[in-house]
Design goal:
Keywords: Signal. The protein is mainly α. Helix content is 84%, strand content 0%. The protein has a domain of 90 residues. The chain is built from 6 helices and no strands. The N and C termini lie far apart (66 Å).
Length: 160
């Protein structure tokens, strides 16, 4: 009987854990996501308000282009005949969107900010290529903690 009650409790706890609402980008509008991205970049790169607004606009354009591309891909998935060609074409279009975004960022940021952003962007790309979602979350938390500790070290060193 104890085994069954323990099993029942474990099943219940599992159901509760999976029923939790997901947080993050999934439930946000494009405008909210663009604002979050601009805030994140602004806090790490010390942007002016003008740069921050331009980054928000560039991110909104990028999100819109990606959303259109994904909708198009969804339609094409229904017609799965020329899948290899479509996949290559989609990859090329995604790369173009990414290159355009990088060009926008380079025109908005100064050289030092762009170098920092490029480094930050590369770290995010490494995280995205992680094999497990849990690993990505751990890497993200570790990266944020590392960045915060570096920032606080920089702040402390200026007072010495």
């Amino acid at each position: 009987m104890k085994k069954y009650s323990l099993l029942l409790v474990m099943v219940f706890m599992t159901m509760v854990a999976f029923a939790q609402e997901k947080k993050g980008w999934e439930k946000k509008s494009s405008d909210e996501m663009a604002m979050m991205y601009a805030e994140k970049v602004s806090s790490k790169l010390s942007l002016t308000s003008e740069q921050k607004e331009k980054i928000k606009e560039a991110q909104m354009k990028r999100l819109k282009d990606q959303k259109e591309l994904m909708a198009k891909r969804k339609d094409q998935m229904a017609d799965a005949e020329d899948m290899a060609d479509q996949t290559a074409d989609m990859k090329e279009k995604r790369m173009k969107i990414q290159e355009d975004f990088k060009d926008d960022m380079q025109s908005i940021l100064n050289e030092e900010q762009y170098a920092k952003w490029e480094n930050m962007h590369q770290e995010e790309m490494k995280m995205m290529k992680g094999k497990h979602k849990g690993d990505k979350m751990k890497m993200h938390k570790m990266k944020d903690q590392k960045m915060e500790s570096e920032d606080s070290d920089d702040d402390n060193s200026s007072w010495k």
